[in-house]
Amino acid sequence: MESNVDLSFLLHALMPSWNSVPLLTGFFTYLAIAGSILPGKIVPGVALPDATRLHYRCNGLLSLLLLVALLGIGANMGFVSPTAISDRGLELLSTTFLFSFLVTLVLYFSGCESQSKGSSLKPHISGNLIHDWWFGIQLNPQFMGIDVKFFFVRAGMMGWLLINLSILMKSIQDGTLSQSMILYQLFCALYILDYFVHEEYMTSTWDIIAERLGFMLVFGDLVWIPFTFSIQGWWLLKNNVELTTAAMVANCFVFLIGYMVFRGANKQKHVFKKNPKAPIWGKPPKVVGGKLLASGYWGVARHCNYLGDLLLALSFSLPCGISSPIPYFYPVYLLILLIWRERRDETRCADKYKEIWTEYRKLVPWRILPYVY
C-alpha cells in the first residue's frame, strides 16, 4: 500500500504545473535582459566555414552574481522563498522538459523555413524528421539578437547553481546541514563560478562551433545539466553521511586534480586556437600538420579534458559516501557519454584531417587515460 502511495505522490509531483511557469519565465527573461545590457568582454567566436565569426558578450559571471544577489535580497525581504526550487523540484523538471520539447519543435520548423546561406543559419536537412529534430537544423539560431545556443548553455549552468543553493537553504531550514552537503556545495559552486570566469573558452568548444541546436543540446542544457548534476544534493537532503577526515582530504585531492586537468587542457586548446605560437608549459607548442596541438595535456591524451571532467564529476559524488549507487549516476553517465562523444570526435577528426589525424594518433596513442584507454 505504501509503494502505491509513493508512486502516486511521485507521479503527481512530476506533473508539469502552471506554478512553475513564472519561475522559468522570470529566469529566462532575466537572463535575456542581463545578457544583453550588462557589460562584458566581447569575444569573437571561431571562424565558421564561410569565414564569418559570431561575437559573444561574456558577462555570465556578472549576470550570475547579480541574480544571486537579487534573489538573496528578495528572500530576505520576503518577496521570494529561498526553497521555492527545492520545494517543487520534480514539477520544475517536467515543466522544463516540456518547454525544451516545444522549443525544439519551434527550432525545427523555423530552421526548415530559413533561406540563409551563411554557416550559422543555413539549414541542414537530412529528410529524416527525428534525426533533424534531435540533432538540429541550424548551427547558431538567433532570437531577437540572442544566440540561442549560447543562451541555453548559460541557463543550464546557472540553473544548476540555483537548484543547489535552494537545496542548501532547504537543508539549513530542516536542520540537516552536514559536512558532506557543504563539501558537495563547495565543489559545485567553485566549478560553476570558474566556468563563468572562463566563459569565453566556451566559445571555442565543439558544442558551440560544430553541433547544431536540436533537442539533444537543448535538453542537455536545460534539463540534464541542472537536474541530474544536482542529484547528489537531493540525495544528501534525505540521507545523512558522516565522512572521515581522510575521506574529505582525498575528496579534495580528486577535485583539485580534476580541476587542474580540465581547466588546464581547455585553456591550452583555447589559447592555441587564438595564438598557435603561444608557449605551452614554457616550451614552443608541438603541432602536427600545422593544425593539431600535441603539447601539454594534448600530448598526453587526445581527449585529456574528458579525464578532468570525469574526476570532477567523481568529486561531486564522493561526499555522498558509498552506501548507495544513486549519487554516482552522474559520473557513470558522464563516463558513458564521454566515451560515446570521444568516438564521434575521432570519426569526425579522421574525416576532417585525414593523414594528419593518423600522424597525431601515432604521436599521442591514448584517448582519455594514459596507459588505460
From TrEMBL:
It is a multi-pass membrane protein. GO terms for biological process: sterol biosynthetic process. Its EC number is 1.3.1.70. GO terms for cellular component: endoplasmic reticulum membrane. The keyword Oxidoreductase applies. The chain crosses the membrane at residues 20-40, 61-80, 92-110, 151-169, 181-197, 217-237, 243-262. It is found in: Membrane. This is Delta(14)-sterol reductase. It comes from Phaseolus angularis (Azuki bean).
